[in-house]
Amino acid sequence: MKKETEIKIKIDNVNNIIERIEKLGGVFVKDVEQVMHGLFLPKCENIKTGIFPRIRTEDNRTTLTVKVRKTQSSHYFKRDEYTVDINDEKTGLEIMKILGYSLVRTIRKNRKEWKFNKVILSLDTTYFGTFLEIEGKEESIERVISDLGLEKEARITKSYLYLEDTHLKKLS
């Protein structure tokens, strides 16, 4: 089990933020496409229980992850995260269906990732926007926000499924 603490910031100028990360010494890790399948119980019972499973494929690796919300925080997205490798998406989705979950949506994103000052910086590009995800300990997240000059930017502590929901509501 891993403790996850992160925030997201919407990025309008991708080249500018990449330049800032690299200028400050961010170490590039990878550039991958991720396909994430969000799963929910009937009547969205997950929201009450705070248990959110997903199946994600990246390169040739497929994982089942269950994120468990322990507390509500307005400053950070905090979850306990349990991840296991699985053989393939199709079997994983069938198992989750047997357990009562249904596929809500699939989100595709391109992720560029760096390590910098004890955090992982992930620049995620989706059809509904580009977001910088900063993951690490709270003090390290705050230091990186300052180093990148992002103190005045709005913090996002919601999931990509929520962000897509918000985007779709604006369109309707």
What's a concise summary of this model?
It contains five helices and eight strands, in the order E-H-E-H-E-E-E-H-E-E-E-H-H.
Please tag this protein with its features.
172 residues, alpha+beta, 8 strands
Which radius of gyration do the C-alpha atoms yield?
16 Å
What is the arithmetic mean of pLDDT? 94
| Order of H and E elements | EHEHEEEHEEEHH
| Cα end-to-end separation | 39 Å
**Count of DSSP-assigned helices:** 5
Q: How big a fraction of the residues is strand?
A: over 45%
**Major sheet characteristics:** 8 strands, antiparallel, barrel
Q: How many DSSP E strands?
A: 8
Which regions have little confidence, pLDDT < 50, spanning 5+ residues? none
User: Structural class of the helices, strands and pairings?
Assistant: alpha+beta
Shape descriptor reads globular
For the biggest β-sheet, the strand order reads: 1-5-4-3-2-6-7-8
Helix content: 25-40%
What is the strand and helix layout of this fold?
Blueprint: E1 2-11, H1 14-23, E2 27-40, H2 45-49, E3 51-58, E4 61-68, E5 77-86, H3 89-98, E6 102-116, E7 119-126, E8 129-135, H4 138-147, H5 160-171
Antiparallel strand pairs: 1-5, 1-8, 2-3, 2-6, 3-4, 4-5, 6-7, 7-8
Structure overview:
- With 172 residues, this protein is an alpha+beta fold.
- It is 27% helix and 47% strand.
- It is built from 5 helices and 8 strands; from the N terminus they run βαβαβββαβββαα.
- An 8-stranded antiparallel β-barrel has the order 1-5-4-3-2-6-7-8.
- The model has no long low-confidence stretch (mean pLDDT 94).
